[in-house]
Write a structure and sequence with these properties.
With about 210 residues, the protein is of the alpha/beta class. It has 8 helices and 5 strands; from the N terminus they run E-H-E-H-H-E-H-H-E-H-H-E-H. It has one domain: P-loop containing nucleotide triphosphate hydrolases (Rossmann fold). The structure holds ligand Z5A.
Length: about 210
């Protein structure tokens, strides 16, 4: 755990409610007197957002190789860590990040990059700046189809099939199982209030609530 700030990441498949939960957490943790910094991956800084655009919206009819995609995610992450996350943690802020390195482990391994290569790159880029707590929003993909549809998003991920979303779900659950001290799985099908309450309980249990 960092000496001053706290680093909380939110993970899960598309439309599981990460952005909605983050808005609730920002309000609740700010009300407790914490300086809260909300950010996202890929993105979070000017350069990282530029890389996000390149990664998620390549020129028409072009596609990144799985390895190039993994490297782009980590390129964006390196700038994000250096210029936003680490300075905020050093100031004592609570950083809440919508997706982080677990998304690379999940999505890019499904795309075919070996876990060994992904973990080696992650070790170089992330170093010691590991999340204090990772909240994984979990639900069966077919139960979330309507939510994803409402977002009206069209990117390289959203166009993929249900089977892909099932694999994403399994990948996150495997990460949670392999690092139970860091990860807490939350039922994404609860109401926004129920999910927020469960997340705050996890924060109170796992992190210093003061
Ligand atoms: N990606 C990658 O491949 N490798 C990486 O390393 C990283 C990312 C970091 C973009 O991510 C893509 O990048 C992502 C993985 C890949 N793949 N996709 N797609 P993104 O975070 O920008 O996109 P996203 O995962 O699809 O997130 P999102 O659109 O922000 O969805 P969300 O935050 O999980 O859900 P939401 O916006 O809060 O909610 C969706 C809808 O459900 C909305 O209408 C809400 O009002 C509703 N909602 C939310 N919570 C509830 C509850 N509890 N009950 C009922 N309704 C709810």
């Amino acid at each position: 755990m960092t000496d001053l700030g706290r680093f909380i990441t939110l993970e899960g498949g598309e439309g599981t409610g990460k952005s909605t939960l983050i808005a609730g957490l920002e309000g609740a943790l700010s009300a407790r007197g914490h300086d809260v910094v909300v950010t996202r991956e890929p993105g979070g800084t000017k350069l990282a957002e530029a890389v996000r655009n390149l990664a998620l919206h390549p020129p028409e009819d072009q596609a990144w190789s799985p390895l190039a995609h993994a490297l782009l995610m980590n390129t964006s992450r390196d700038d994000h860590l250096r210029n936003l996350i680490r300075p905020a943690l050093a100031r004592g802020s609570w950083v809440i990040c919508d997706r982080f390195a677990d998304s690379t482990r999940a999505y890019q391994s499904i795309d075919g990059v070996t876990p060994e290569d992904l973990l080696a790159i992650e070790a170089i880029v992330v170093g010691d700046t590991r999340p204090d707590l990772t909240l994984i929003l979990d639900a069966a993909p077919n139960a979330l189809a309507e939510r994803r549809h409402q977002r009206n998003v069209s990117d390289v991920f959203e166009r993929k099939a249900t089977e892909f979303h099932e694999r994403v779900r399994s990948a996150f659950l495997e990460i949670a199982e392999s690092e139970p001290e860091r990860c807490v799985v939350l039922d994404a099908l609860g109401s926004p209030d129920q999910v927020l309450t469960a997340a705050l309980n996890a924060i109170d249990t796992r992190l210093d609530p003061s």
